[in-house]
């Protein structure tokens, strides 16, 4: 029986420690970031002649980054990764090769994302003053014997959808389908590719921005990203259950007091009928319409009774 229970708990544990799913409630504020379902990427580069190093930081705030059949599994982020970095090096001949695959966060090889969500307005840090949104800390990554962590700040910007300057990475069958379509067009007249007018915006104009990748800490490496979007604004959606306690507090106390008053009336009335009139049984002992008059000797002080007798 114990073995069976342990098996059930083990089977349910992945559900309890699921990936961050774009929804969060903290300090009574409810955020829904499902409009940002990815994956989306931001690229950082460094030129060191004769090579150029580019790192693609990919994040799907609503779930894992799906693997594709087109690329070799070793050239992709591990299964269950939610935030990942892939470093590519291009040499002088133009050949590009993958140098590093860094799983930053996710449910990876038995480790879990264990997200921590905080309201930025509630932070005591001076650097957070004037900011609105939420900070999400994601764990679960491991690279070169060091823990990895992603800190993503979703900053409120009513003018941005959160997709400005971003191109959604194709996953799974979608990527393979596009490749087949491109192969069919080879040898024929290709239609000019239509570009999104928002694509190609400068890095500083993109909604998703790379802040830093700090490897100086001996305990863990930390990737910091900033994502500006109107969906991080507190005025967009508020958790109705957060105010429910305030709206129903008065009525709750009223009902409790009313219940206690009725209970006291029944108990004291039954006791009075039993002790003064010898009432036996359930129904005879219950207080009747004349019970309030019987309460008066107990409620009025001796001085009040003497005054009443003088009139």
Query: Main sheet: which strands, in order across?
Result: 7-8-9-11-10
Mean pLDDT: 78
Distance between the termini: 80 Å
Structural category is: alpha+beta
Highest-level CATH class of one domain: Mainly Beta
**Biggest β-sheet strands, sense, barrel:** 5 strands, mixed
Pfam family, one: ATG27
GO biological process, one term: protein transport
Family: Belongs to the ATG27 family.
Organism: Choiromyces venosus 120613-1
Labels describing this entry:
alpha+beta; 311 residues; disordered N terminus; 5-stranded mixed sheet; transmembrane helix; 11 strands; Cation-dependent Mannose-6-phosphate Receptor, Chain A
Task: Describe this entry's structure for a reader.
Belongs to the ATG27 family. Residues 165-207 are annotated as: Disordered. This is Autophagy-related protein 27. Residues 1-18 form the signal peptide. There is one protein chain. The protein is an alpha+beta fold. The protein has a domain at 23-168 and 205-232: Cation-dependent Mannose-6-phosphate Receptor, Chain A, CATH 2.70.130. The protein has six helices and eleven strands. It has helices at 2-16, 172-185, 240-277, 282-285, 291-299, 302-310, and strands at residues 23-26, 29-32, 40-48, 51-59, 81-90, 96-106, 116-119, 133-143, 146-156, 208-214, 220-229. It has a five-stranded mixed β-sheet with strand order 7-8-9-11-10, with no helix packed on it. Strands 3-4-5-6 form a four-stranded antiparallel β-sheet, with no helix packed on it. Strands 1-2 form a two-stranded antiparallel ribbon. Strand 8 (133-143) and strand 9 form a beta hairpin. Mean pLDDT is 78; it is low at 1-17 and 190-201.
